[in-house]
Write a structure and sequence with these properties.
five-stranded antiparallel sheet, alpha+beta, three-stranded antiparallel sheet, 4 helices
Length: about 180
């Protein structure tokens, strides 16, 4: 991992043919990683859907998992074995997660990165909160209309001649 002083330096290096196959450029702070552990490790894609990717990362020491997906400044949530960790921007536009090696020295870590922007979560909560209000108003409207319609039917003022809609059973039997 190489720390650059600005995005312009990173873009210039990438345009000049920087080999990003085993190194990453960043302007942010990322703890050091073990290049040998990365070379001897493996990554397996476990799941991918519209908003989430999950990987199994096997490495003897700390490594940087660079994903070929665009980094988004807000809304990305990363976890390693269920513990939230930061998502870093590397090579100007890609996302990366620093993964420590397993505590026992062998085994795999599960990395999950989800896209859940505040606007979507807020909209979902607002919709769920508004649903009871909408149902209550619809129920009140139905109850009020029904309350007004029943007296009209009982008085016989609800239907014109030849109009079956709004007629009572007695009206139909009497022919009126």
């Amino acid at each position: 991992m190489i720390r650059a002083e600005s995005d312009e330096v990173i873009i210039d290096a990438l345009l000049r043919g920087f080999d990003a196959s085993d190194r990453a450029l960043t302007t942010g702070e990322i703890a050091s990683v073990d290049r040998e552990a990365a070379a001897g490790g493996s990554v397996t894609l476990l799941e991918r859907d519209l908003h989430t990717v999950r990987y199994r990362v096997e490495a003897a020491g700390p490594v940087l998992l660079v994903m070929s997906e665009m980094h988004i400044p807000s809304g990305l949530i990363a976890t390693i074995d269920g513990t939230r960790v930061p998502v870093h921007r590397v090579n100007h536009l890609l996302r990366a997660v620093r993964v420590d090696g397993p505590a026992t020295g062998s085994g795999a870590r599960i990395v999950e990165v989800s896209y859940a922007p505040v606007s979507v979560r807020g909209g979902r909560l607002l919709s769920i909160g508004a649903l009871p209000i909408v149902l209550l108003l619809a129920g009140l409207g139905f109850w009020r209309n029904r309350r007004e319609l029943i007296p009209k039917l009982e008085e016989g003022g609800g239907a014109e001649e030849g109009d079956v809609e709004g007629a009572t059973a007695e009206d139909v039997e009497e022919g009126g």
